[in-house]
Amino acid sequence: MIVVDTNIIAYLFIKGEFTHEAEKVLNKDAEWAAPLLWKSEMRNVLMLYLRKNLFTLHDAGRVMHEAESLMQNNAFQVPSLPVFQLAKESGCSSYDCEFVALAQMLDIPLITCDKNILNQFPSTAKSIHSFIQP
User: Fold this and answer.
1) Helix/strand/coil (H/E/C) assignment for every residue in the chain
2) What pLDDT is recorded for position 35?
3) Mean pLDDT for all residues in the chain
4) Considering only the top CATH level, what class is 2-132?
């Protein structure tokens, strides 16, 4: 099991520059976890595609359903105190620190492309590229 941030989930289901890498992550470890927050963030990503007329409502609904199916039973409530502590110490957003806190709670890596998270939490976060390296 690994924690993935919302961008990794989006890369998997929205075809683009990083889709192939996200597929490799899934092939290496198919059990993805995330804080409950991932759903709201994913909806926000999909709304950007809707507003730019890159997706229809049907497309957005289909992608969200596929993502929810993958993440079913692996979305976790994260306690606030560790999130506050991590955010205060690092300067990262509380949103980002929910993913970090979950990875630390479960003692598993967080896979992300977020450079700030990678810099602030090198013992917890791994880049998508370093994770998929053989």
Assistant:
1) CEEECHHHHHHHHCCCCCHHHHHHHHHHCCCEEEECHHHHHHHHHHHHHHHCCCCCHHHHHHHHHHHHHHHCCCEECCCHHHHHHHHHHHCCCHHHHHHHHHHHHHCCCEEECCHHHHHHCCCCEEEHHHHHCC
2) 98
3) 97
4) alpha beta
